[in-house]
Task: inverse folding
């Protein structure tokens, strides 16, 4: 019994020392040109999914059909395309240089409920580069953005450019206007 305890203690010390050596030695490549180790990737992905599910549980989405899609499009174009791109439109150099890579959102609509996506847009995702838009946008604006994002899978590659072309310059929200 005593021997087992000593063995466990030694193992714990080795693990803690190994962990500290890993952190302080600088061997981990923090560059945004490489992805995480697959184990870390799993930790981060699983934590993210479960955290969003739990925190978004009490959010009740209003009927999306009644929301202002034009307002959603304008904010989406000003705030999201730079990183996420849109159907038929690649993201900018900013989005392309990020790890994790911001996904094209039409691919992600099925993975989240409207409430969960609303939570992500409002609160952001720590340490990924996904900003929180809650501090700078009103609830109706956030729901309008969400409603527009939910429409993305139905927009053809040429369709987004056509929608975008109809935005009048004076109506476009500016990144620094908030
Ligand atoms: C500065 C870059 C940046 C901007 C601007 C940005 N995002 Fe993101 N977004 C990210 C990154 C990075 C992720 C995380 C991807 C991951 O965790 O793999 C992300 C994740 C998301 C996700 C979760 C996707 C998934 O399935 O994991 C949603 C939804 C989302 N963003 C919506 C938006 C919306 C809507 C806007 C505009 C209002 C926006 N984002 C603006 C970078 C950005």
Result:
């Amino acid at each position: 019994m005593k021997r087992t305890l000593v063995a466990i203690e030694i193992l714990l010390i080795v693990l803690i020392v190994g962990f500290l050596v890993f952190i302080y030695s600088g061997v981990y490549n923090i560059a945004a040109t490489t992805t995480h180790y697959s184990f870390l990737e799993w930790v981060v992905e699983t934590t993210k999914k479960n955290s969003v599910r739990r925190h978004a549980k009490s959010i009740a989405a209003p009927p999306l059909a009644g929301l202002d899609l034009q307002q959603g499009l304008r904010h989406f174009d000003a705030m999201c395309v730079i990183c996420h791109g849109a159907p038929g439109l690649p993201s900018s150099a900013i989005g392309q240089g990020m790890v994790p890579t911001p996904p094209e959102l039409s691919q992600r609509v099925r993975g989240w409920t409207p409430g969960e996506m609303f939570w992500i847009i409002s609160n952001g995702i720590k340490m990924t580069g996904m900003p929180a838009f809650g501090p700078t946008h009103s609830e109706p604006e956030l729901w309008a953005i969400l409603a527009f994002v939910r429409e993305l899978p139905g927009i053809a590659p040429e369709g987004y450019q056509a929608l975008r072309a109809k935005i009048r310059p004076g109506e476009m929200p500016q990144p620094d206007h908030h």
